[in-house]
UniProtKB/TrEMBL annotation, chains A, B:
Taxonomic lineage: Bacteria, Pseudomonadati, Bacteroidota, Chitinophagia, Chitinophagales
Native source species: Chitinophaga niastensis
Domain HTH lacI-type stretches: 4-61
Protein name from the UniProt record: LacI family transcriptional regulator
SMART domains, alphabetized: HTH_LACI (SM00354)
Pfam families noted in UniProt: LacI, Peripla_BP_3
SUPFAM superfamilies named in the record: lambda repressor-like DNA-binding domains, Periplasmic binding protein-like I
Organism superkingdom: Bacteria
Length: 339, 339
DNA sequence: ACGCTGGGCTAAATCGATATAGCATTTTTT
DNA sequence: AAAAAATGCTATATCGATTTAGCCCAGCGT
């Protein structure tokens, strides 16, 4: 069951494979192939349902029409939804997607990059782990475009599409303050990457701007690798340790979920006894009782922008990095209604 | 920035590319290459970090070490989680995954198959849409292994890995009966595919076995393509139309979610006024108040089996189809506690 | 000394598409 | 009418790895 090759068409049309190639690549005019021959070839190609062998083409041209998508965790709702958008958008340009999850593990990320590299993807969409900056810079010298997402390296001059995480956290915290909460904590991931740093900074800035006293004891930073039980235990331990605490901002979607679980197992009333804001929207946040206020990312727009940036670079690489920061939306629900 | 090729190694070792190829493919013995030369080549290859160009290899051998994964919707928690398992498992065998979502649309599915075919994937993992049986059979003649998942075609003799959907629905329904619910409805997707048919059959069989009267008015079948609002409206309309209704079984994860939303907007008390069982576990089901009883699929095991079956076929195709049916687990929570 | 066997390796073809260089004609220019 | 230019197409090399056929040499038997 071999496919139709350019040779088959050439034979049927009584011309050389070269001519067929020219015609099918739209170079008929440029290469001065007559309209007659050109049309004949088109017709035969259509009739035989010719599809170029991407391997052969890729081998010769170095282009595989494939992009690599590296996310933190494809099972996480945010990344899965984004992956779908990316897939759909890429498809519009004729690109397919190879994906992988890093689990926020740099070694795994390096492994993925390695594989994608020798699979010759044309470009990369990467949710970087920390310390991946070296690899990224190295990769950039290979002239394959890279678009970072969700986070980036401030000292690396790369393309990226991210959320305005500072604003997201700032708005969330300001909202809690305005609602009347007095002592607002943040539970975040122990990471110095931009997305986490910005969220923490936004939280702190909002407190400052509203003259709410800030203290380091209000910040809990947890390692990414914990399992559910450990997350819950740590969160409970922290929440009960802060005296007078009346609101908490969870800086990632899964922390929010663990947070809800923890608070409930403590028997506290979400909203009244303790205000709560999560990150990224989720069916759980929408349908929980009480429903959960959250900072929502415009997933569709993010995905579109990512692919748009990548395609632009693929077609006409520029020296100026495209750095796009999209605004979050604060979705206000019951969990941040004091009384 | 070109990669290291077999020629570079050959040059450094002072042998021909052929020899290098033999050695690196483990055919040293068979092809009678001396241990000396063999070791030398190995060493050089390791030092240069040689990685074979998959395009060139694929072009020559017809094997791309890539598998195609077609799911219904990668943004759906169940499929996303499964995709991750599949990716991890496939990686162990050195395979990468190209994926796509059908949205349960046969035309989209055909398009995906087309693309994957001319991308020369070595094998397929497919969540088929209805009427895709023709394409699947056609594809099978191409000697590329195919494993169906989640659902299958009874009249097509293919490999598959699915859940025992009948048992899942049977157990869920029996559980509701034993809890004392008297009038139990089912909300499902209007689809004649096996997974949906089996769930409906399991529901009906359980009612019969427990001598609970069944009537067609207890069954609501909704089209897949509705949006959230329409789903909610339809569900509400249905639930209020059944007199004496006191429990409902939602046959897919998203229907369960819409179900919760609908019931709440009707102001009914889940558990007491209306028993509820969902399908597939979800953070929402676990953390909802009251928590939601559901039929849970063993995602890890399913993913592992799928890849295992596919790899077996890839290495030594057999005539007997491997058809695997895994047991569901009923997770009992508060939504099915009467009083 | 001649043929035969087996060990150790390599030349060349191949997969399918593309890019480069260039070969006949015909047409235009001067 | 000779030179130059344009037209319309093709032969061949190439991407990198694999595979087939087979070369050369040493050692063995007779």
């Amino acid at each position: 069951m071999k496919g139709i090759s350019i040779k088959d068409i050439a034979k049927q049309a009584g011309v050389s494979p070269t001519t067929v190639s020219f015609v099918l690549n739209g170079k008929a005019k440029e290469k001065r192939i007559s309209d007659q021959v050109s049309k004949k070839i088109q017709k035969i190609a259509a009739r035989l349902k010719y599809k170029p062998n991407q391997l052969a083409r890729g081998l010769r041209t170095g282009k595989t029409k494939t992009i690599g998508l590296i996310v933190e965790d494809i099972a996480n709702n945010f990344f899965a939804s984004l992956a779908k958008v990316v897939e759909d958008e890429a498809d519009k340009y004729g690109y397919k997607v190879l994906y992988g999850s890093t689990e926020d593990n740099t070694e795994k990320a390096k492994g993925l990059l390695e594989v994608l590299k020798y699979r010759q993807v044309d470009g990369y969409i990467i949710t970087p782990t920390k310390n991946l900056d070296k690899e990224i810079e190295l990769l950039e010298t290979a002239a394959k475009p890279i678009v970072l997402m969700d986070r980036y390296f401030p000292h690396v001059n790369s393309h990226y599409v991210v959320l305005d995480n500072f604003k997201g956290a700032y708005d969330a915290t300001s909202h809690l303050v305005k609602q009347g909460y007095k002592k607002i904590a943040i539970v975040t991931i122990a990471s110095d990457q931009t997305q986490m740093k910005d969220r923490l900074d936004g939280y702190i800035a909002a407190l400052k701007d509203h003259q709410v006293p800030f203290s380091k004891t209000l910040v809990k930073r947890l390692p990414f690798e914990l399992d559910r039980e450990k997350f819950n235990n740590e969160i409970k331990k922290f929440l009960t340790s802060v005296k007078g605490l009346d609101a908490v901002f969870f800086a990632t979607n899964y922390l929010g979920i663990y947070g809800i679980e923890s608070i409930r197992s403590l028997g506290w009333q979400i909203g009244k006894e303790i205000g709560l804001v999560g990150f990224d929207d989720h069916d759980l946040f929408r349908l929980h009782s009480p429903s959960i206020t959250c900072v929502s990312q415009p997933i569709g727009e993010i995905g579109k922008k990512i692919v748009e940036v990548l395609m632009k670079e693929l077609n006409q690489p520029s020296d100026v990095p495209q750095q796009i920061v999209l605004p979050p939306e604060l979705i206000i629900r019951e969990s941040s209604k004091l009384a």
